[in-house]
Amino acid sequence: MAEVHAVKEPETIQLVSHLLKIRHSQQMADVWDLGLNLALRISDLLSITFRDIDGDRLVLRESKTGKLATIHLNPKAQKIIQRIRDEHPHHLYLFQSYRNQQSRHRTPRPITRRAVGKAFELVGEELKIALGTHSMRKTRGYHLYQATNDIARVMQMLRHRSAGVTLRYIGVTQDEIDRDFRELVL
């Protein structure tokens, strides 16, 4: 599996969403847009059910760590969720597979990580960037770090235990750290 990166330019973030919508589906664009706003691992993002959403909060147990994540939903996330809920009032999952609707007797399932990964990879190839299912989480972390320079906040948001891991994860390179030391003179 190739390493994927955070999307660092705001214009490119919007372009990824647009290309996912026109090349693949609104659902893939929604995965991207919501994933950017929730910073969840892809497995947790795709497993969200409407029961996990309580007003302006998302509450779920992370599959990798077993930790309980309580996330305040910002207005953009709330708007996306409400639109999906209005369009698909009988869905169990926020990102429910449409293929599953072909048989009334099948248990509902979310779209697969593989389908999302393929759509993201194709858009990434078109834009010549390493894009994958972790790119949403990495992008959110990267931009929070750029806005605050507070690695502890980014670690909390991503629920990481190590600053070094978090810095590598969001793509902050040694050159950027060196530049910060040069430019910040006290």
UniProtKB/TrEMBL annotation:
Keyword set, alphabetical order: DNA integration, DNA recombination
Pfam families: Phage_integrase (PF00589)
Keyword Cytoplasm: no
Tyr recombinase domain boundaries: 2-182
PROSITE patterns in the record: TYR_RECOMBINASE
UniProt entry tagged with the keyword Magnesium: no
Highest taxon of source: Bacteria
UniProt protein name: Site-specific integrase
Organism encoding this protein: Ferrimonas gelatinilytica
